[in-house]
């Protein structure tokens, strides 16, 4: 059957909107929870009440964000079934497993402990509460690990094979799926990005208190934690982002070429285009400013391996489509005659390219009828949106380097104990608040929009993965999401600003109403 | 290790276990949410009710998330067909799930009576929607739903949202609703301040009674008014997961498996015993009646699962497309791996969940809420 292209477009739009929206909250949870764990560790080690109050205050903001993260996360799980039913059928055997294990190993722990984090202060001992916080932090990062194992497999589908009898991908080696280099690189890059975001959140709001001269001690301590944690995270996000770039160049050559707007293969080592205006129509980049060698070094870790350009990759794709059509034909023969040995042999030889024949399904029902012109069209359809990727990537990287600079400076100021001295710095820290979100969303765009037209790279085109629902149904849900998510975004923003403005002083958390218990009164057991 | 047939039966049982886990653990949260304005007459009383579930509802809800994840991984076709086929119904459930975390958290964040009342309504509605729609969806499993596969196993659906609202399915929805209201009320009787608990006792009595009526009605209807599905010819239990390899007839009885395996009758008996137990013990406002209502929930779901066995989701328009335990599962390797993960982690989950409930033991009193205000 021919796929309804409206349903494809609407389903993609809905998935992108809900995923980008979900990813506004996830990185803050990932980062802030570790900052809470650090602060609470200091509290338990030193017994100083102010550190407990810091955990409680930042915990209020954490809680608001956590609720939004949980609420919008359910959508992601539902959507694979609701809008991407053929995808769910086709890859559930592989893709579903990490999601289920995420629930078993991480989300259960996270969901069960978060209530005690908020309501357990007077019910369990200090050390037990600290353990709750640490396990909560661990569980959020483990959660990210399994989600990114699933996502890594979409980018680089290892450890699996096509089964013609069940018409789907099935696991052949789970350890390959888990130790997928793309998944591992993505995991460290993504959680580090979350840590940067969490640090910026604490740094910016604390800077605002210092600008107002409120909660000075409280804010300086918070900033010190944020600056140290943020610096380490900002360094790792860039270093590990480079690792992620290397992994991409190995497995997704087209995405790499699109990010670099590399239309033709350059002689190795390729140069890095710092600036340019990619021109899709003429397949060239205007006003390009290039730094020799850099791209070749990052992408291949060598000086002699070339990075293939878009034109070459399209030519390669045409060959793979030809092979894919052979596999498709063999698959249909096998459907009539389950034991046809010749068809089995052809399918075994070419099943890695079956997905390329499925690219033709957007244009025709039977890929075997494809003319050379159709094959050219299908091959051209594998070029992602070059200008969007080119610019998203560069802005993300620029943000990354800026974070290193800002956190390094913050760390230096914190070690010299003069965080509150320079107002321009405090203003800079305050106004930098949105940037990690910008970087995180751009990162998602590079990774997932750059994967198009594939849902599973080389295996299943996105357009084929949709459910057999009507455009009207998707319009309804899309409208519902836009409405509900907008209302929730407003409420979330209002509450965040309200509680950040109130601050520890306004919430009666600090300074304490009665004199703080002295350190001597609270014996330290470390 | 296990052969394919055994793994499939284990994963059918585990899917049931997760569903029962969800209904027991999250079911009382939904029940409380739906009864918020019935049991709680003042803001303080509602705070008490909320505090009986607030620290734990999030973990409880993971039973559902995990159920979805496990269905995706172990029964991908079931997950794909049901979620996309019942699109708008599932979307309503999803909205209810979205509004719960924010409802619990945001309600107390602004001290304004209208604001709180708004979120009370949101929580009430989300509770009712989930309980009712899950039951209606379950009812539709017996009726068969209008889908079919093509040769590529792409599913097409030939029905609308309103066709799901068959009278039998509505009765199934009422079974689910009354069952979980009773379950929520048992929890409130056990955990909430005596003023509220006394009200909960009355609600639990009435809703268990209503549940028994609906459950019996559904059973009679199922026996005399709804035709069952059956696999024709040799049943291949360890074969390929492709639903189109079998033939299915529509016209048998859903009680056939009860005739074949008489011990299946233990499930409905358990449901009735649970209901009777609630009636007898609820006045004591202890943990006992909550355990009885949990048994009632488990018995109900088991009795439905047993009747359907080996079907997961029958197709009304193309019976051979029906999903069964024998042809809708993941590959053997995936089932085995997931079983390993479950065997390791499920006991750990039960241990820390029990610990959290133990820490939070004790009745939530009005006095406590007035003193501490809203802490979450």
Can you walk me through this structure?
The complex is a heterodimer of chains A (526) and B (376). Chain A is mainly α. Chain A has 17 helices and six strands. Chain A has helices spanning 5-46, 49-82, 85-119, 126-155, 174-178, 181-212, 216-251, 253-259, 294-300, 310-336, 341-350, 354-358, 372-380, 386-415, 423-431, 435-448, 471-506; strands at residues 160-163, 168-171, 272-279, 284-291, 454-456, 460-461. In chain A, the strands form three sheets. A two-stranded antiparallel sheet of chain A has the order 1-2. Chain A has a two-stranded antiparallel ribbon with strand order 3-4. Chain A is globular and about 80 Å long. With 376 residues, chain B is mainly α. Chain B is globular, with a radius of gyration of 21 Å. Chain B has a two-stranded antiparallel sheet. The longest helix of chain B has 31 residues, at 113-143. At the A-B interface, helix 2, helix 3, strand 2 and helix 17 of A face helix 4, helix 5, helix 6, strand 2 and helix 13 of B.
Topology overview:
The complex is a heterodimer of chains A (526) and B (376).
Chain A: H1 5-46, H2 49-82, H3 85-119, H4 126-155, E1 160-163, E2 168-171, H5 174-178, H6 181-212, H7 216-251, H8 253-259, E3 272-279, E4 284-291, H9 294-300, H10 310-336, H11 341-350, H12 354-358, H13 372-380, H14 386-415, H15 423-431, H16 435-448, E5 454-456, E6 460-461, H17 471-506
Helix pairs in contact in A: 1-2, 1-4, 1-6, 1-16, 1-17, 2-3, 2-17, 3-4, 4-6, 6-7, 6-15, 6-16, 7-8, 7-14, 10-11, 10-13, 14-16
Chain B: H1 4-25, H2 27-39, H3 43-53, H4 57-74, H5 76-85, H6 87-107, H7 113-143, E1 147-149, E2 155-157, H8 167-191, H9 194-224, E3 227-232, E4 247-253, H10 256-260, H11 266-281, H12 287-308, E5 311-313, E6 323-324, H13 332-359, H14 366-372
Helix pairs in contact in B: 1-4, 1-12, 1-13, 2-3, 2-7, 2-8, 3-14, 4-5, 4-13, 6-7, 7-8, 8-9, 8-12, 9-11, 11-12
